[in-house]
Amino acid sequence: GERPPSSPADGVPRRQRQSMRVVCNPTCGAASRLASWSTTTWRDGARVSRRTKVIPRVRTREKEDQQGATTSGGLLGGGLPFSTSGALDAAASAVIEASKGTEDVRIDGPENDGKTLVSIDESREGVVDREDGLPATYDRIAIQRYWDGRPGELRKRWGEFVRLNVPFLTRIAGILLSGASLADESGPLSRQARKIMETLGPTYIKMGQMLSVRPDVLPEDARDELAVLQDSVKPFSSETAREVVERSLGVPIEDVFSSFSKEPIAAASLAQVHRATLASTGQEVAVKVQRPDIISTVSKDLYVLRRAAEVYQGIMDRFAPQQRTDYVGLLNEWAVGFYTELDFMNEAANQIKMRDLLRGAGVDDVYIPEVYLEHCSRYLLVTEWVEGKKLTECDPDEVNELVAIGQEAFLTQLLQLGFFHCDPHPGNLMKLHDESKGKLALIDFGLMASLNQEEMDTLVSSIVHLSNKDYAKLTEDFVKLDILPADCDRQKVLPLMDKALSPFIKGGGATKYKDEVLKIYEGAGGLQSMTSDFVTVMNDIPFSIPPYFALLGRAVATLEGIALVGDPNYRIVMESYPFVSRRLLSDDRPAFQQALTEILYSSPSSSSSSPSRGQRLAVLLNAAQGIVAETDSFVDLDTLPEGSLSTKDSVSLFFGEKASGLRNSLKPEVSILLLALLLDSDIALLLSLSFRSRTRPTFC
C-alpha cells in the first residue's frame, strides 16, 4: 500500500493543511495541539480519521493550568514549568518536529570527533568488515559513505521509528489529559513499549533491558514486562549460527568443536550463545555468535537516534537556553560504545585485559572466564564455560551479598584501574556454583570504558566531598568534570546543590529521591519555592552533562538498579565511602593528600572550633573498615561510630601496609597525631617498646 506520510500535513488537502497549521502553531496551547494529533492515525499505509473525545477535557485542564500558575515565564509564557500544559507543550513540539522534513533533509550519523571513554583496542582501528564493508570501530565518515550508496534506507528506517512511536506517545498524552494515572496503565503501556522495542530491533531492545533493572524508575509490572527482553529475545536458526561459525573459522565446525549445541543456551539482542566442546582439549566453552546483518541494522538506528537527539536538543535550547548539556554529544558517546560492542575481537581484548587487571589488584571474589583468542573473530567469541545462577534468579539476601562483591569490583575498576565495565546488568552477573574460582562471575565485555588518572582523582574527591556535605569543594570538582563552567555563580549554585543532592545521598533511587525533595519544600515555601528554584536552575545555572559521562552514568545506574532490588534503601554514594577511604589511606597521590588534609583539618560543620585531628584520624581508619558514623545520612567526621575499632586495632591499621599513603602524607605530624590517637597508656607503652626494638620507621 501507499507509504504513510512523514508528517501530519503530508497528503492532506491544502485547506485542511492550513487549518492544521493554525492548530499546531507554537502559540496555541499544548493540549489543543495534542488533541489535533490524536484525530488522525495511520494503519497499513492508509489514513484513518477519527474524532477524539478528550478535547473538552483538554481545554478545561489547560484553563486550570493557567489559573493555577504562580509565576510567569513558564514553558507556555504564563503557566508553571511543572504544569501539564508545559510538559505536553514540549512533548507536542518533539512529535511535530520529529516528523518534519524526513524526506528532504539528510540524516547525519553521530560524530566521534570529541573525547570518548569507550575502550577500543588499537589493533581494531581502521579494520573494515570483510562482508559488508562497514568499519569494525565507529567511523562516522566511513559509515556515511556506506549509506550514501544506499539512498532512501535511512529515511525509511526513520519513518518506521516515527510510525511506531507517535501512537504510543499519543496514548500517553491521552491518559494524562484524561486525568488518569500512568501508574494505573503501566502494564498495558509497558507491553506496548516492549512490542515496539522488539519490532524496532536490537538497539531498542538494549534500551528496554537497561530500564528493566530500575525499580526506582518503573513499577514492578512494567519491569516484569521489560525483563522479558533480557533473555527471551527470539533466537535465529541453528543452521544460520553454524554458517556464521564456519564462515568465521574458515573450516568445518567439526574441526574445531567436537560438540556444538543445536539450540542456543541464551539469545540476546546482538548475539546468541551456544554450548560447545573444543576438539583439541575437551574444554567446554561458550560460543557467542553474532546475529546476521546486525551491524547494518544498528548503524541505521544510530542515525535515527541522532535525529531524535537533534530534535530534543532543539527543544531544550528553546525552553532552557542557559543549559549547556550537549544531548547530541551524549548520543554520540552512546553510539560509539554501542557500535563497538559489535566487534567481538575488541570484546575479547577487553576481557583478557580485565581478567589480568583484576587479578593484579587482588580482586579474588570476582571471576572472569578465560578467552580462547585463536578461535575468535569479528562475529565469534569463544570463552570458558562457567556454571552459575543469574542474579535475576537469586533471592534478595543473595543479591545483597553479591552486590557488595560486585560493588567492590566496580569501584576498583572505576577508581583504581581506570578501566570499567559499562553494562553490569543482571544477565552479565552470575553466582558461581564452583566458589573455588570466586563467588561472582562477570561476563560480556563488549562495552568497556577508560579513565585517566586525573579523572579518577576527581571522582574520588567528588565522593569524599559529597559524603562529607562539603558542597563548596564539590562545586570545584564539578568544574573539573565539566559539569559546571568555571565562571558559574557559586552563590546561586551552593544552596541548590544542598536541595538537589542531600536527598540523593539518602538513597532509595528515584522514587525516594522525589519524596525527599518534596519534604524539603513542604516547610520552605512549597510548590512556589520549588518552582522558583526550578526556574533558577533552568535559567541561571549553566550546568551540563558531559558527553563522556554517558557511559559512566549507564554503568552506575545499572549497578544501583540491581542493588535496589535487594535493598530498597541502597545508597550508592555512602556505600562507596569505605572504598574511597581505603584509597586515601593507601595512596599518597597529591590529590589524595589534599583530600586527607581537608578531612583532618576542615572545621566541624556544627562550630567554628578546630577539629580533633586524632578523632578525625580514628574516624577515617574506621571508615576504611566499613564502620561509618552518620549525621542526617552524611558522614560525621567528628563522631566515632558505634562498634568502632579498638585503639590497638587502629594503631595496627595505621602502621600496616594498607595505610602507607596516609603515613607518607602526614610525615611532619605523625608524632602529634599518634599522641592524640593513643589515649590508652598501655598501647602507648607497647608502641614505644616496638619503636626501640626495630629500625626507625621510614615515615618519621
Structure, described:
The protein is of the alpha+beta class and 700 residues long. It has 27 helices and 15 strands. 53% of the residues lie in helices and 8% in strands. Helix 2 (30-38) crosses helix 6, helix 4 runs antiparallel to helix 6 and helix 11 (294-319) packs antiparallel against helix 12. The model is unreliable at 1-84, 101-105 and 679-700 (pLDDT under 50).
Short note summarizing the structure:
This protein is an alpha+beta fold and 700 residues long.
Total number of helical segments?
27
Radius of gyration: 28 Å
Q: Largest beta sheet, briefly?
A: 5 strands, antiparallel
Q: Please give the number of β-strands.
A: 15
Low confidence ranges:
1-84, 101-105, 679-700
Note the beta-strand portion.
Answer: 5-15%
Estimate percent helicity: 40-55%
- Cα distance spanning the termini: 85 Å
What value does the average pLDDT take? Answer: 75
Class derived from helix and strand content: alpha+beta
Shape: globular
